[in-house]
Write a structure and sequence with these properties.
about 25% helix, single chain, Aminopeptidase
Length: about 250
């Protein structure tokens, strides 16, 4: 992964910090557009498809993406964190090398090193969209979480409609305690149950509370072949960027 990041052509990968064990965390900023998009993957080290998808997006080396990130230079300004849990990624574990689930430690009183580095890098950043790429060991197909501010374009149903042409969608009735509406987990639809605690947050909700307008968490099923999972992530990303560029669908 480090070698591939260092070999990106015309896209510098900056080390934003090193954890005590010596592993670097990288950030890539690219694009001159007015729409600000943040992307991240690998917060759970045993979910490698998202990391691979972002690497290919940066490289522009996948059939699902035409030219990769450079295609969008004039439309978007990207901030990309390709692997936010490098020790877990190398070991193939959900947690980091110290056994901590990093995706439950944002805005904590005593955050792990990786979380502190990411929070510092994101400080003051104002994004129109944030996408986090995950995988689900129990997943039966593609699904996503969506949290957005009032008046922001609602994208999830359109993403599912397009994804379902190429990949199966997870139709389980309930996922992580929330109703699954045809592959969409949108907690805001149940206002009585939608409550965000202030500490020990996952990264999407941490950013949502800091004025990010729209947060999507993409999930692929780990039981599927790696190439299919990578394809799901890249296709979802391409669908989202095209929808935002075109201004469709209308805000809810």
């Amino acid at each position: 992964m480090i070698e591939r990041l260092n070999n990106l052509k015309g896209i510098p990968a900056v080390i934003i910090g090193r954890i005590e064990s010596g592993y670097p965390l990288y950030m890539i900023t690219h694009g001159e557009g007015d729409i600000r998009v943040a992307l991240s993957a690998g917060i759970h080290g045993d979910e490698p498809a998202g990391v691979e998808a972002l690497l290919r997006f940066l490289e522009g080396t996948h059939i699902c993406i035409d030219e990769g990130i450079k295609k969008w230079d004039k439309v978007f300004k990207f901030t990309v964190f390709p692997c936010t849990n490098p020790t877990g990624f190398e070991k193939g574990t959900r947690e980091n090398i110290n056994g901590i689930d990093l995706n439950r430690k944002f805005n904590s009183t005593n955050p792990p090193e990786e979380v502190m580095i990411l929070q510092d890098a994101l400080k003051g950043g104002q994004f129109d969209l944030y996408m986090d790429f995950h995988e689900d060991t129990d997943g039966e197909g593609f699904y996503l979480y969506e949290v957005m501010r009032k008046g922001v374009n609602h994208l999830s149903e359109e993403i599912i409609r397009n994804i379902s042409r190429n990949y199966p969608v997870d139709r389980r009735e309930c996922i992580d305690g929330f109703p699954n509406c045809g592959g969409v987990i949108c907690p805001q639809k149940d206002r009585k149950r939608f409550h965000i605690r202030k500490k020990d947050l996952p990264l999407p909700l941490y950013l949502y509370l800091r004025s990010v307008k729209h947060c999507l968490t993409i999930e692929s099923p780990t039981r599927f072949p790696m190439e299919e999972r990578v394809g799901m992530h890249l296709m979802a990303l391409d669908i989202v960027l095209n929808l935002i560029k075109s201004g469709q669908p209308k805000p809810v």
